[in-house]
Amino acid sequence: MSVQIEDSELVRDYISGDEKALEILINRHNQRITSFIYSKVLDRDITEDIFQDTFIKVIKTLKKGRYSEEGKFLPWVMRISHNLIIDHFRKNKRMPMFEGSDDFNIFSVIGDDKLNAEKQLIKDQVNSDLRILVEELPDDQKEVLLMRIYKDMSFKEISENTGVSINTALGRMRYALINLRKIIEKNNIVLTS
Amino acid sequence: MEEIYFDYQKKFSPVKASAETIEFLISYSRALYTVKHENLKFDFLLN
């Protein structure tokens, strides 16, 4: 009876220089990741591209020793591919489509104010991701950020509510944003809306 | 109804990345070297 080597062990082996470990990881999760990407983009070529970009990111992160989610390899890779799918849709949104060769179609460059189902899904996902990230912040920074962003309070109001000076509130907001950026970079998260 | 079923089938049928893509990734990985210097890290592709 053969025993399947855990992902975390393969990741460790790969980081130590065993290239075969990467091949096993890719083949083990190929179908799951590819099917996930395809279920979102519904195009085989784009799926291949996103799959490839996902693993290029995985390889670079592992080789640089930046991977820190031991035991959670697949969710981490799925997260990277999810972010790349969002990037793909975002890029397409930025490129206006011109239909026909002679006539300029104004509707192709004017956006619709209402969010379509896909954009709404992305927006909801970003909001929920952001709430999770905010929870990682120290309490004093989290408090200021929630008041400013979610309750739309001015720094004067925040200062009155928290009993600190406006400058301190501003400083906490600044550190909250710096720390959020660090968490995002550390986990290779791409937030888009 | 048929169309909905077809879309559903298309969306959820298992697919795999091609052997060429996997081959490329393995070659890419073998060719990628990361060099550390103090606090800096550099990537090199050696093929």
TrEMBL record, chain A:
InterPro entries: RNA_pol_sigma-70-like (IPR039425), RNA_pol_sigma-70_dom (IPR014284), RNA_pol_sigma70_r2 (IPR007627), RNA_pol_sigma70_r4_t2 (IPR013249), RNA_pol_sigma_r2 (IPR013325), RNA_pol_sigma_r3/r4-like (IPR013324), WH-like_DNA-bd_sf (IPR036388). Pfam families: Sigma70_r2, Sigma70_r4_2. Residues 25-94 form the RNA polymerase sigma-70 region domain. The keyword Transcription regulation applies. Residues 133-168 form the RNA polymerase sigma factor 70 region 4 type domain. GO terms for molecular function: DNA binding; sigma factor activity. GO terms for biological process: DNA-templated transcription initiation. It comes from the Bacteria. Keywords: DNA-binding, Sigma factor, Transcription, Transcription regulation. Belongs to the sigma-70 factor family. ECF subfamily. PANTHER family: RNA POLYMERASE ECF-TYPE SIGMA FACTO, RNA POLYMERASE SIGMA FACTOR HI_1459-RELATED. NCBIfam families: sigma70-ECF. This is RNA polymerase ECF family sigma subunit.
